[in-house]
Design goal:
257 residues, alpha/beta, Rossmann fold, 2 domains, 7 helices, 11 strands, globular
Amino acid sequence: MNPWVLLLALVAVAVVFVVAPVGAAAFAYYRRPWRLTCPHAVVEAQIKVDATRAAVAAVLGRGSPSIVRCSLWSRLRGCREECLQLPAGEHRSMRRGEAPPRLRSEPDLRMILVPLDGTPGSESVLDAVRGLAAAHRATVRFVHVAPHATTVQSEDDGRVVAFAHQESARVEHQVRAYFSRLAVRLPGVSVGGTVRFGEPLAEIVEEAESVGADLIAMASHRRNALGRLVRGSLAKRLERETTIPLFLVPYGEQAAA
């Protein structure tokens, strides 16, 4: 038998029965969100690890996992890589729908994050949010995620019309005016808002954790089978990325307050 064929066969067996299972197990282990006691703040924190990097490190036997997100509540700032150095027994996996870390004396619902894409359909959640916020005396925070701004050039001669930072400022000004118009629909409720630039899923989660949101309320699209297979809904992806509870209404329909 050709020795090269034998070698390739052995490599294939190793990949199928050793490398792939080890990588898959590491990926599944690190993909979940974790709770632990933050070594800086000495209070409970939540971390998310780069599961892909952790799987590669486990397969190659070198490198180490890296934290891609840590609870960014004001009391927990600074909790980063030190979390991974804690004994394994101090980590615990999250339960679906478990509330964000916070002091027990704080109310159950004090901050509601509302992602909006600028369309009437995404505003369908506002009626329900008004009722929730009024009942719990909670603050509502709008968030809109826009693509990273780029330099705008004239189609005729390629002349620069607006630089990236100017375009970012224009978009932010436009969105904040939009937030002000929507705030009128929530009388008696404390309303704020922010504009972020980047990938919607990551930015919404980052904003929710940075402000300590107790609930993410949003309108959700109903995708067909092909859409779910290719991308999935933003709501479903949010469920996998954060344990902050979601409150959903159908996109484009009104919800009772």
